[in-house]
């Protein structure tokens, strides 16, 4: 039986002993040439939230605010070389995994995560860009489910991604989100943050943080903006950053939700491109200038 708890404002996040260690976060993802999503968004989010970002690039995209016009995959061998270079030198506490374009790369990433055993793993199962462009080969979904998701402390699918992972129709309301909780648990991750941002008719953006025997409802007012490119990358990276700083998982997720909400609130302060612009990762800094 799932237990729902409406989240109260986070007044005093819980820190553990990691708070005294440099919070190094590795992002493993694709590059967005437009700068709004992927590795670029990850590095911005990790930096803005207090972490130190390092990166392994899995694919190059020819991309801007209007869409993706090309994808060039990096070989699994070179992905492994990048991973070895980072892990052999840097004390990586948390890993965020984003776009992985094929089964070979998924296998390599899973193998190296098992080898180096970072303390936290956050997986954003990137499959579709904000523009609707497919970013993950359909044949790789099974590899993602069998090899990588069970290694994650939290996975952060949006509704279309959750639909693709468990083979159901895309939920159209919060009740239908609730109905797929048990199936999402069966993916093997320790927890799931099911993002409800695609429920555009709702006045709130409500996510469900699904644990082994509990469900926490995280809700924020929906912001009327077209500038939402890179929201999933940004949220998952912020969660990884807070974990690396020593916040417990529930606190890291709630802080990540608060951060992405404010980044969306301030998104229209930026004028970037002609399509779906990025969120404002450095809203605090920008307000101070």
TrEMBL record:
- EC assignment: the record states 2.7.1.49
Q: Where is the Pyridoxamine kinase/Phosphomethylpyrimidine kinase domain?
A: 32-280
Q: Which NCBIfam families match?
A: HMP-P_kinase
- Is the keyword Transferase in the record? yes
Is Nucleotide-binding among the key words of this record? yes
Associated pathway: Cofactor biosynthesis; thiamine diphosphate biosynthesis
Keywords for this protein? ATP-binding, Kinase, Nucleotide-binding, Transferase
**Pfam families the record matches:** Phos_pyr_kin (PF08543)
Source species, domain of life:
Bacteria
Q: Which InterPro entries match?
A: HMP/HMP-P_kinase_dom, PM/HMP-P_kinase-1, Ribokinase-like
Name under which the protein is recorded: hydroxymethylpyrimidine kinase
Gene Ontology CC entries for this record: cytosol
Provide any one GO MF term from the record.
Answer: phosphomethylpyrimidine kinase activity
Q: Which gene encodes it?
A: thiD
Picking any one GO biological process from the record gives:
thiamine diphosphate biosynthetic process
